[in-house]
Design goal:
This protein is α/β, with parallel strands linked by helices. It has a single domain (about 5-275), classed as Rossmann fold (3-Layer(aba) Sandwich). The chain contains 10 helices and 7 strands. Strand 2, helix 6 (about 150-165) and strand 3 (about 170-175) form a beta-alpha-beta unit. Helix 1 runs antiparallel to helix 10 (about 260-275).
Length: about 280
């Protein structure tokens, strides 16, 4: 398993490659990619049981990126894990590349299609139920957006997961408090999501979603649950790592200019160097 420092560095390298790919494509969702970088980097740095040489290994852990617009940051994690060359991430959202807007099982290492918000948790519940039925010990991880909690299908799946005592299901909510057109409170206030999940019978853990140690400790605690699914409410910053993006809903799905990209790449390189360099 990678050290905390190496995972922190990986998260910024993933941001950098995501920025490069989004700039090349002329479209994408940098803000929501950058807010969940540490979560995904931690999962793919020794937490999840996966095998890049055997992507469909039946006993692997599963990962569902329900907030599918953050696909580019997942693709970089898969590339750094060895599923395909990192060069592929420079050619996202193109007719000539294998990596499109959102995850697809056609991509090595992707376990589910996503992008239509609100559906991922139902998929993850199905995977977790299958694991129980097949007497497999794999775990199912899912990452959702906080704006996504506005979707009614989420709450049907929340209820089902608790009813079936899916302790092999571990969820994250990327709680950056900003969605496409504004803040959560302005669009549709979700209130205290932790209290809501707890009321439905889930184990609730609250963390700083950019603190790798807290992420690792939360996953370890979730692994000790015997009869409940776990939701990890991860407080994050939209656009984390690029000063002009942080906390700005305008960067949910904006295309960076040449100057935007130059500034972002400089700041991300500086952060990597501060963590010890390449």
């Amino acid at each position: 398993m990678e050290s905390i420092n190496e995972i922190e560095k990986l998260a910024y390298k993933m941001r950098r490659e995501t920025m490069r790919g989004i700039h090349n494509a002329g479209s994408g969702h940098p803000g929501g990619c950058f807010s969940c970088a540490e979560i995904i980097a931690t999962l793919y740095s020794g937490i999840m049981k996966i095998d890049p040489k055997n992507p469909k290994w039946p006993d692997r852990d599963r990962f569902v990126l329900s907030k599918g617009h953050a696909g580019p940051i997942l693709f970089t994690a898969l590339a750094y894990s060895g599923f395909f060359p990192l060069k592929e991430c420079e050619n996202i959202r193109s007719l000539t590349g294998k990596l499109q807007c959102t995850p697809s099982p056609k991509v090595e290492g992707c376990d589910a299609s996503s992008g239509s918000l609100g559906q991922g948790l139902s998929t993850a519940v199905g995977m977790a139920l299958a694991g129980k039925a097949d007497k497999k010990d794999y775990r199912v991880f899912i990452l959702m957006g906080d704006g996504e909690q506005n979707e009614g299908q989420i709450w049907e799946a929340v209820m089902a997961a608790a009813h079936h005592k899916l302790n092999n299901l571990i969820g994250f909510i990327d709680n950056n408090e900003v969605q496409m057109c504004g803040t959560l409170k302005d669009i549709l206030d979700t209130g205290d999501l932790g209290n809501k999940y707890a009321a439905f019978g889930w184990n609730v853990i609250r963390i700083d979603g950019h603190d790798v140690k807290q992420i690792k400790d939360a996953i370890e605690a979730a692994g000790k649950e015997k009869s409940r699914p776990t939701i990890i409410i991860a407080k994050t910053v939209k656009g984390k790592g690029v000063s002009y993006m942080e906390g700005k809903y305008q960067w949910h799905g904006a295309s960076p200019t040449e100057e935007d990209t130059r500034i972002a790449m400089r700041e991300l390189d500086d952060a990597i160097n501060a963590l010890g360099g390449e």
